[in-house]
Amino acid sequence: MAISKEEYAERRDRLGALLEERGIDALFVPPSSDLEYLTGIERDLPSFGNISYAHGWVAGAFLAPSREPLFVLPRMVVAFHLDGKPPPGAVVVNEDADGRALFAEAVRSLGPVSRIALGQRVWAETVIELRQVVPDAELSEGSSLVNELRRVKSTAELKLMAQACLIAREAMDAVTPAVVPGVSMSILVEAVEHQLRVRGSRCPSFPTHIFTAGARRLDSDDATALEALREGEVVLFDFGAVVDGYCSDFGRTIACGEPPAGYEEARAAMLEAQEAGRQAAKPGALARDVNAACRAPIEEAGLGGAFRHRMGHGIGLDVHERPFLSPEDETPLELGMTFTDEPSVIVDGSFGVRIEDVIEVTATGGKIL
User: Fold this and answer.
1) What is the band of 309 on the pLDDT scale with cuts at 50, 70, 90?
2) 56, 68, 167, 173: most buried by Cβ count inside 10 Å?
């Protein structure tokens, strides 16, 4: 179930109302999850290095109340990222054009502006050029405004997230039999990501992380990724899928043979913690209090020092979104918010154990997606 054109329009209407309420004339959003949320323009897959084009700093869209988005895009973005089809009314900047002049013309077409909000990932050059065009305008951070719209998910969003969760769970089911002596973390990563892709995930929702936390530390992020797993070691999985831009974040722990002493007791405390956090995730509860409810069973088991994590984080078009279920966050939960529920226990030199699911806030507590 893809997001409809009507839902994108409704999101922009809500943004327009919020901008008017805050006295902001326009929001400039670069290519990002915010732009995808508001317009449906799909983000590129992440890459290790930045992709750069002539006039790349102009790329994005101005959104203002009661008007359609005004896109300003380098020609290369249109040609190679949008299949040669610019959005209606877009200003397309060719390589040999005066990018500064075209950007300034687009800003002035908005009419008088005294306050402009900017997405968090706007290039510094964009801000500098904007200052030249409207030197007296007040600039403010705008992604937090979009987050206010994004944090409560629609029915369509929840269905896409549930599908991403299902893909992750099925991938875990398929890979679990491979956790045997001799396998490496690198091989397990390749297996997980293959299973995600063949089930329809566009890409991993973040770099897949698979590791042990026992007497030996094997970690898919470093050279130990190539070392062979041994009998009695415990493997922790952390990965996610992407469906139509929406993320899942999934974690499980698999013992290779007989787990070490203390593992089963810690696992029982961790499962109790996940359930306590899930039940506490109700409308009106403060994020920090939900985190505390999750942490309590682990503290009671005497493992508080090994719980180095928060209960979880918001999730949606980004794998990590605000608010966070952590000690510093006082956000009241609302129906339809989505979070990870991911308690973990890491006992240095002995073992690690973790579990992670995505939950939707409902009137009776968190619903596992």
Assistant:
1) confident
2) 167
| Sequence-ordered list of residues with C-beta below 8 angstroms from that of 232, at least 6 positions apart, any chain | 255, 256, 257, 258, 259, 260
Q: Residues 65, 17: contact at Cβ < 8 Å?
A: yes
Please give the C-alpha separations between residue 270 and each of 17, 247, 295, 351, in angstroms, as whole numbers.
43, 24, 9, 13
Does 40 have pLDDT greater than 90?
Answer: yes
Q: Nearest 5°: phi and psi at 57?
A: -70, -20
| 8 Å CB contact between 260 and 232 | yes
Give per-residue pLDDT as tens, 241-298. Answer: 999 999 999 999 999 999 999 999 999 999 999 999 999 999 999 999 999 999 999 9
Q: Are 111 and 9 in contact (CB under 8 A)?
A: no
Give the integer Cα–Cα distance in Å for 286 and 330.
Answer: 5
Q: Which two tokens stand for residue 140?
A: 């403010």
Q: Tell me the two tokens of residue 110.
A: 């908005």
Whether residue 40 contacts residue 8, with contact meaning beta carbons closer than 8 Å, is answered with yes
The SS3 call for residue 139 is strand
Residue 118 contacts by C-beta under 8 Å, 6 or more apart in sequence?
A: 27, 28, 126, 127, 130, 139, 140, 141, 142
pTM above 0.85, yes or no: yes
For residue range 124-177, list pLDDT tens digits in order: 999 999 999 999 999 999 999 999 999 999 999 999 999 999 999 999 999 999
Predicted pLDDT of residue 337: 98
Q: Which helix (H) or strand (E) holds 145?
A: helix 143-150
The predicted model gives 191-202 an average pLDDT of 98
d(CA 194, CA 188): 10
Maximum separation of any 2 CA atoms in the chain, in Å: 70
